[in-house]
Amino acid sequence: YKYADRHPEQSEQLYRQRAESALALLEDRLAQHAFLLGATASVADISIMPFVRQFAHVDRDCFYASSLTGLQRWLRHWLDTVEFQHVMKKQ
Question: Which of 91, 77, 63 is nearest to 1 (CA)?
Fold first, then answer.
């Protein structure tokens, strides 16, 4: 989805829809818990977050206007952490 122009055999919209199908699985989990595997953060959350962030940043307006509200909340949580802001500080 991020590099749809490099793979013109399908539309960007189709790539986005395929990714959203995978993200819907995460959304379902976040409808039940604050984090992917339960009430506390796990290595699963930390491992998947960069991929969700990449997806969201392709078209932020579209992502934040989507029905993925649990995923939006979850991503904002990670983006707002001191640790994330520290490692992503511009040099």
Answer: 63
